[in-house]
Amino acid sequence: MSSTALLSQVARLETESQRQKSATIRMKRVTLTDTRSIAGFYAADWARKVTRVGEMNFPDTARRLSLSAGPLLEVAIRADGSLLEVRILHSSGNAELDRAAQRIVKLAAPYPPFPAELHQQANLLRIESPWRFDPGGRVQAR
């Protein structure tokens, strides 16, 4: 077999492998304004947990700068409650606050496994959440 044919075969196998992996991921997106779906209820519980953890680990930067701001995050949680990733969709304008929000989400992990009804719908949940750090020491993932 020539090297060109071999490389072509490897590329086809890699493409097929990626396609199979993608086919097994059932992803659902949710925002915290969704108050009617099982994913929305899960996201609301997530927000309560990260708010508690955030207030226990309030960033000094927010106190020092007396800002009332925060980033827009997208958090990806697997069905078993493990955290896949935390992405900043829109910066707060302050890199320290952005990193603090990401750190809080990571500190709060792992999260509860998905309820059976949600797990039937998805095995990956992406929660979009605007954050706010109030100078008085309160965190809002809303």
Estimate nothing, just give the exact number of structural domains.
1
Arithmetic mean of pLDDT: 87
- Count the beta strands: 5
CATH class: Alpha Beta
Question: What integer value in Å does the Rg equal?
Answer: 19 Å
| N-C termini distance | 58 Å
Instruction: Give the proportion of residues in helices.
Output: 40-55%
Reading the helices and strands in chain order gives: HEHHEEHHEE
Q: Please describe the biggest sheet, giving its number of strands, its sense, and whether it closes into a barrel.
A: 5 strands, mixed
Q: Catalogue the unreliable spans.
A: none
Structural class: alpha+beta
β content, as a range?
Answer: 15-25%
Q: What assembly state would you assign to the polypeptide chains in this entry?
A: single chain
Supply the number of helical segments: 5
Per the CATH scheme, the topology name is: Fusion Protein Consisting Of Minor Coat Protein, Glycine Rich Linker, Tola, And A His Tag, Chain: A, Domain 2
What is the CATH architecture term?
2-Layer Sandwich
The best one-word shape is globular
